[in-house]
């Protein structure tokens, strides 16, 4: 083989390697969310059953906890499973300087979030449901007396709700923990 | 036979490059949907349902529960104002103002997002507990050894990150709307 032919062959293989690299890169990035065994939902699932309110450990040094937690905020979560029906979420607020509620799908996407500014009578409240359950609710809605409920559609059957509460001073952290411990997730009957 | 070996080598090279590039990009932070404000980076879409695949993969891999857009904004700095990597041997001054928010916190974490053990037991400051000048301006000193005023200890972490969280900020939904002058500066004021 002459030098030029060798060079062309080597370049051909290099281009092939780069194409394979690009494909592998794309596959890895797209597949991670589907197979990651250590994602937030999987870590939370290890802590307790569906619908139970569980207060998260205060963020601190040590890798047993979730990363990028704020040491000034107390958080509690409950996992939901909509395959048996919608879930009503109630989160009383008022004592903490700032409180918020966020809804996350099984895949980790944020579905919705609200803060204590959106609370009515000191309560943040919502119903989480699947698109099919939403259609059924809407079919039963009374047009003259519309429902006041905040309805949040989850793109996955499973997911979790997280409540956060801010402590203005280190000494107020326990109060913030008590506030997030008030989060409650309970099955909601379908309309009849 | 030699061409078979060449094909094998090409495949192995492609696979290795693909995996390496995926890892490298996830370690350094998602390249898309990131807004830079001075020394700070905001993964603007992390807290929304339309996060890009890189942001999603990064979140899934770390297990982080992102702050939702409606709750607040998380700004992360790996470098100082002049673009130098944050160094545990140096002293930094962070201040004097932050963008508008009901509350904010500044904390120090290692590369994986966990607070760093230190003798003072301080992992961050809240807007509600820092010492301020008469006009509301503040300085937080980030250093390994004790510093007067608001001292945020570096602890034993070699590479560290600073995390600024803005809770209930009117800017939450429009990360692009933060001016550089509104974000606190990270000034290196000396090195040991």
In short:
Chain A is α+β, with helices and mostly antiparallel strands and 192 residues long. Chain A has helices at 3-35, 40-45, 131-139, 173-181; strands spanning 54-55, 73-81, 87-92, 99-105, 110-115, 123-129, 151-153, 158-166, 184-187. Chain A starts with a helix and ends in a 5-residue tail after the last strand.
Largest sheet of chain A: 5 strands, antiparallel
SSE arrangement of chain A, N to C? HHEEEEEEHEEHE
Number of domains of chain A: 2
Overall pLDDT level of chain B? 85
The mean pLDDT of chain A is 90
Let me know the number of strands of chain A: 9
The percent range for strand residues of chain A is 25-35%
> For the CA atoms, what is the radius of gyration of chain A?
23 Å
Q: Pair with the most extensive interface?
A: A-B, 62 and 58 residues
Shape of chain A: extended
The CATH topology assignment of the largest domain in chain A is Immunoglobulin-like
End-to-end separation of chain A in angstroms reads 82 Å
CATH architecture of the largest domain in chain B: Sandwich
In the CATH hierarchy, what is the superfamily of the largest domain in chain B? Domain of unknown function DUF1214, C-terminal domain
Inertia-based shape of chain B: globular
End-to-end gap of chain B: 60 Å
Radius of gyration over C-alpha positions of chain B, nearest whole angstrom? 20 Å
List keywords for this structure.
heterodimer; A: 192 residues; alpha+beta; Immunoglobulin-like; 2 domains; 5-stranded antiparallel sheet; 4-stranded mixed sheet; 4 helices; 9 strands; B: 192 residues; Jelly Rolls; 4-stranded antiparallel sheet; 2 helices
Report on this model:
The complex is a heterodimer of chains A (192) and B (192). Chain A has helices at 3-35, 40-45, 131-139, 173-181; strands spanning 54-55, 73-81, 87-92, 99-105, 110-115, 123-129, 151-153, 158-166, 184-187. Chain A has 192 residues and is of the alpha+beta class. Chain A folds into two domains: 1-35; 40-187, Immunoglobulin-like (Sandwich), CATH 2.60.40. In chain A, a hairpin with a 4-residue loop joins strand 4 and strand 5. The N and C termini of chain A lie far apart (82 Å). By secondary structure, chain B is α+β, with helices and mostly antiparallel strands. Chain B has two domains: 1-30; 33-191, Jelly Rolls (Sandwich), CATH 2.60.120.600. Chain B has helices at 2-28, 53-62, and strands at 34-37, 40-43, 72-77, 90-95, 103-110, 124-126, 140-143, 150-153, 160-167, 185-191. In chain B, the strands form three sheets. In chain B, strands 3-9-5-6 form a four-stranded antiparallel β-sheet, with no helix packed on it. A four-stranded mixed β-sheet of chain B has the order 8-7-4-10, with no helix packed on it. Chain B is globular and about 75 Å long.
């Amino acid at each position: 083989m002459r030098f030029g032919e060798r060079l062309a062959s080597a370049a051909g293989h290099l281009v092939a390697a780069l194409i394979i690299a690009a494909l592998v890169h794309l596959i890895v990035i797209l597949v991670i969310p589907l197979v990651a065994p250590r994602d937030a939902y999987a870590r939370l699932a290890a802590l307790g059953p569906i619908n139970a309110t569980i207060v998260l450990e205060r963020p601190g040094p040590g890798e047993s906890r979730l990363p990028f937690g704020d040491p000034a905020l107390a958080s509690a979560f409950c996992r939901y499973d909509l395959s048996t029906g919608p879930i009503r979420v109630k989160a009383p607020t008022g004592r903490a300087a700032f409180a918020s509620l966020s809804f996350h799908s099984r895949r980790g996407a944020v579905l919705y979030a609200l803060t204590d500014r959106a609370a009515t009578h000191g309560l943040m409240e919502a119903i989480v449901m699947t698109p099919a359950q939403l259609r059924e609710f809407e079919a039963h809605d009374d047009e003259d007396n519309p429902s006041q409920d905040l309805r949040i559609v989850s793109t996955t059957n499973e997911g979790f709700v997280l409540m956060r509460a801010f402590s203005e001073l280190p000494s107020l952290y326990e109060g913030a923990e008590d506030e997030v411990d008030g989060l409650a997730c309970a099955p909601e009957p379908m309309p009849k | 036979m030699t061409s078979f070996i060449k094909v094998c080598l090409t495949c192995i090279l492609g696979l290795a490059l693909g995996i390496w590039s995926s890892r490298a990009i996830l370690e350094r932070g998602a390249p898309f949907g990131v807004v830079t404000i001075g020394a700070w980076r905001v993964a603007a879409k992390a807290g929304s349902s339309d996060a890009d695949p890189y942001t999603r993969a990064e979140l899934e891999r770390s297990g982080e529960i992102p702050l939702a857009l409606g709750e607040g904004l998380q700004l992360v700095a790996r470098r100082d104002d002049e673009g130098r990597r944050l160094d545990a041997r140096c002293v930094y001054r962070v201040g004097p103002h932050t963008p508008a928010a009901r509350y904010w916190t500044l904390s120090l974490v290692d590369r994986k997002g966990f607070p760093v053990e230190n003798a003072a037991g301080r992992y961050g400051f809240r807007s509600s507990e820092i010492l301020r000048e008469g006009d509301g301006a503040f300085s937080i000193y980030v250093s390994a050894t004790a510093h007067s005023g608001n001292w945020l200890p570096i602890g034993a972490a070699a590479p560290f990150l600073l995390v600024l969280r803005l809770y209930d900020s009117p800017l939450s939904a429009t990360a692009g709307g933060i001016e550089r002058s509104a974000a606190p500066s990270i000034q290196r004021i000396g090195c040991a």
